[in-house]
Amino acid sequence: MNNLVLITSIIYTPNIPLSYINTRSIYSPTERFEQTKLTIKSVQEKIPNSKIILIECSEFNEEKNNLYMLQYLRENTDYFINLYDNENIRNNIYSKSKSLCEGSMTIYILDYIIKNNIKFDNLIKISGRYWLSDKFNYLRDFDNNNIVIKNIDSHLVNVFTALYKLPYSYVNLFLDYLIKNMQKMFYYIGYENLFANFLNQLCEIDIQRNQAIIKIIENIGLQGYVSVSGEFYDG
């Protein structure tokens, strides 16, 4: 199977609080860049037949002395998109709503994929600064035609969004759903809840078709440091 791996990234986080906490990130841009390099390396090592599309929202220039970051990101991905110069989208990404940030980046990239006719079998999304651990098993868990997710709770109301897989056939449906529900992001709905609602709608269709489309993984194989606290995640 051919995989398109979507990495969402913000190397330079704005000094703006989130709706639920004042500290957006305890890590410096240099630290975030090094963590994102681990993301890219783990994808290259652990996901076969893959191309990487990385979407960023940071300012890179000679004045900031950070062009080496830009060069690395371009050279180590197949598609690199920086939304920093798009003021409207940047304002959404830098808002107090975490879901609006994630949703705006995802809407842009899904639309980009469709408009540019990028073909693949599966879209695997991973949040930048996290990396695939030794528990990540592509052949066992991801080499299939299913949606692959990890639940945060024991039922589909809160779904982990730092790593998931969507087959190509669901990309249009997910894009339409996010656009229709963008207003909820402005009112701080959790992106994990929003994603779960999307999957629940698919489950209703699934019941009608009598098909199993969602594969739930207890330990999906992701590690990394939570931006707002520094807590190490392994699950």
Number of strands: 10
The run of helices and strands is: EHEHEHHEEHEEHHHEEE
Number of domains: 1
| Percent of residues in β-strands | 15-25%
Number of helices: 8
Structure explained in plain terms:
- The protein is an alpha/beta fold and 235 residues long.
- It has one domain: Spore Coat Polysaccharide Biosynthesis Protein SpsA, Chain A (Alpha-Beta Complex).
- It is 39% helix and 18% strand.
- The chain has eight helices and ten strands.
- It has helices at residues 29-46, 67-75, 87-93, 98-115, 138-142, 171-180, 182-186, 191-209; strands at residues 3-8, 50-56, 79-82, 122-127, 131-132, 147-149, 163-167, 214-216, 222-225, 232-234.
- Strands 3-2-1-4-7 form a five-stranded mixed beta sheet, with helices on both faces. A three-stranded antiparallel beta sheet has the order 5-9-10. A two-stranded parallel ribbon has the order 6-8.
- Helix 4 packs across helix 6 (171-180).
- It starts with a strand and ends with a strand.
Secondary structure elements and their pairing?
Elements: E1 3-8, H1 29-46, E2 50-56, H2 67-75, E3 79-82, H3 87-93, H4 98-115, E4 122-127, E5 131-132, H5 138-142, E6 147-149, E7 163-167, H6 171-180, H7 182-186, H8 191-209, E8 214-216, E9 222-225, E10 232-234
Parallel strand pairs: 1-2, 1-4, 2-3, 6-8
Antiparallel strand pairs: 4-7, 5-9, 9-10
Question: Key features?
Answer:
235 residues; 10 strands; five-stranded mixed sheet; Spore Coat Polysaccharide Biosynthesis Protein SpsA, Chain A; 8 helices; 39% helix; alpha/beta; three-stranded antiparallel sheet; single chain
